Amino acid sequence: MGFCCGATMVGAVGTLRQGSTLVHNVPLLFCPVCHHVEVHHAVEDEFQLMLEYAQGDGAREVNLIDTIEPDMIAEWKECCTSFQDGHPEAVLREQIDMALDLMGVAKTLGDKEWEDSLKGRLHILGKRFQRYQKTQMR
Question: Where does the source fall among the domains of life (predicted)?
């Protein structure tokens, strides 16, 4: 499981641009709070190798799915607490629930700094959730 700015990173499959090359179907971890994205370590070597070949050949687009083994996908899925499979509302709700659970722990421990950090995260997640709900009402 990955963490970023205190939030649990979410698993997703996406496209990354590296220079002028697009790499499709990359197993990723992303932070729903600060939007930091990283290639999952289980496929990092394959990603870098594919990227080197593509850039060497001048390819504008490549697909990583052809070089990923099923055990790599299993490792990636094992370390993620949630996946964004086209359901951002579920991911946002899950992240908010986790932050609220952690808020209870921070209060119990009397850790004001952690509690303030969680309040900031909840504020951001709440705004994103409201924005998502507004887009769904249109």
Answer: Bacteria
Please give, one letter per residue, the 3-state secondary structure of 10-67: EEEEEEEEECCEEEEEEEEEECCCCCCEEECCCCHHHHHHHHHHHHHHCCCEEEHHHH
Average pLDDT for the chain? 82
Q: Which residues contact 71 (CB under 8 A, 6 or more apart)?
A: none
Q: Which residues, given as ranges, of the chain have pLDDT below 70? A: 1-7, 72, 74, 76-87
- H or E stretch at 8: strand 7-8
Residues sharing a CB contact under 8 Å with residue 3, sequence separation 6 or more, in sequence order: 9
- Compute the distance between CA of residue 110 and CA of residue 88 in angstroms, rounded to an integer: 32
Quote the pLDDT of residue 82: 63
Q: Where does 3-78 sit in CATH, by number?
A: 3.10.20
Query: Looking at this protein, which amino acid is placed at residue 84?
Result: Q
Return the CA Rg of the chain: 18
Summarize pLDDT for 65-91 with one digit per residue, the tens. 878 777 767 676 666 666 665 567 877
